[in-house]
Every structure is written in structure tokens, then in C-alpha cells.
Protein: Lycopene cyclase domain-containing protein
Organism: Microbacterium plantarum
Amino acid sequence: MTYPLIVIPFVLVTVVVTAMSARRPRFAARMAWCSVAAVVLLLLTAVFDNVMIAAGLFTYPEEHLSGIRIGLAPLEDFAYPLCAAFLVPAVATLLEKPKR
């Protein structure tokens, strides 16, 4: 189960940085838009990962996976787009200068 362990730091950083951005204006609206982006990215990941795996472009060693799959794609593949959907806007928000 190597891949699930690799995902943990990405998820933790995403949670911490997103929580740090909670005090910035429009947090609720940002989270709503991040959720929409996450759904779109997860759907795209499901489609394209399954197509690429089915086409034989890449495989995963079974001993390194959690065993949970969505179609042919391992569950671990879905952590990265989910993190990106929340982490990128949170970082951008934290890098903005606060308006006075």
C-alpha cells in the first residue's frame, strides 16, 4: 500500500492551507466554486484514467494500491485533482495582498 501513503502529505497540506485561507473574505463562495471544480476534475480523471489504463498506456502494481477502484482507476488517482481543486485557490488567496 505505497500509493495511499504517498497521497497523505498532499491531502494534509491541502487541508492545512485551505484552513489557513478560511479567514480571508469570500471563503464560503470560494469553497463552493472549489467544490464545482473538484467535481469536474474528478469526472475528467475518472474518464481519462480509465481510458488510458484500458488502452494499456500504464498499469499499477497491485501490491502498492489500496485495492479500491473506480472502473479501472485506483482510488489514489483521485486525490491529486481533489487536492488541486482546493489547494491552488487557497494558495492564490493567501498570496493576495489584503485590501484595506
In short: The mean pLDDT is 93. The chain has one domain: 2-7+25-95.
